[in-house]
Design brief:
Layout (H helix, E strand, L loop, with lengths): L1 H22 L6 H21 L5 H24 L5 H20 L1 H17 L1
Helix pairs in contact: 1-2, 1-3, 3-4
Amino acid sequence: MKNVLFLALAIFFEVCGTTMLKLSNGFTVLFPSLGVIVFFSTSFAFFGLALKRIALSTAYAVWSGVGTALTACVGIALFGEGMSLLKVVALLLIIVGVVILNKSNDGTKEEQNGKTEISTSEC
């Protein structure tokens, strides 16, 4: 559960970093530019912690997919970007893809847990 929280925090800070990237105006505005560095660094730190127990393929798909969907929502809400049916469908397809990928890893979690337990007991 803690690893899911780390992944959620990684996504949150990634969305904040991407928002600051837009506000930095090509790194010409100081505080948003500093925000890019702080938020992306924090995102990568939490992502690294999440990867201790979550499979890379699953974690990256969730991180990038949910991050993309939330960033699109931020663009619509804060920057007045357009919303179309095609954009909504595309975002839903990203989310469905992440869900399917997570479900495809359900059968391998037991194997991963067994490997983790073996490697832990060997230490």
